[in-house]
Amino acid sequence: MSGCRRCPTRHCRSDRARETWQQHGRSDRWIQQRTTGQETRNKLTDYWSGHDVKKGEEFAILTNIIHQEWAGLSVKAHKEIKGLKSQNLRDHMSEAELIFTGAGRAFHPSTGRKAWRQPG
Asked: What are all long-range contacts of 25-33, with beta carbons under 8 Å and residues at least 24 apart?
């Protein structure tokens, strides 16, 4: 096992995820959408953390609000439709679903939309 496999940084986790998705036959375009979504999610959770939103339940509540807005159903209901239990919903989304998830995060008022206008 290479040293990177044990590395906790986001970069190394992203490389491992990319390898896994490729092994599962995901297209380069899907992988790009998923990677972009992860980057957006990281920015969003960093923003929330910087504004005293608590990880765990509060992150889940905000995530569910955003998901409900674009999908018309809760994360739990979406997972049930896809037959998922503990798996990551985003890893089982279509390319279009990934695009809508990212757009929903970027433009929903609960995300602190002003953060995306600030340089950084």
From this structure: 27/95, 29/95, 30/95, 30/98, 33/95, 33/98, 33/99, 33/102
**pLDDT single digits (tens) 21-44:** 999 999 999 999 999 888 888 888
Helix (H) or strand (E) holding 29: helix 28-50
Cα–Cα distance between 98 and 35 in angstroms, integer? Answer: 10
Contacts 24+ apart (CB under 8 A), 79-84: none
- 80: Cα separation from own chain's centroid: 18
The Cα–Cα gap between 97 and 70 comes to 9
| Close Cβ partners of 60 (under 8 Å, ≥ 6 residues apart) | 75
Write the pLDDT tens digit of every residue in 66-95.
Answer: 898 888 999 999 999 999 999 999 999 999
Only one residue has tokens 């433009």, namely 107
CA angle centred on 105, ends 64 and 59, rounded to 5°: 45
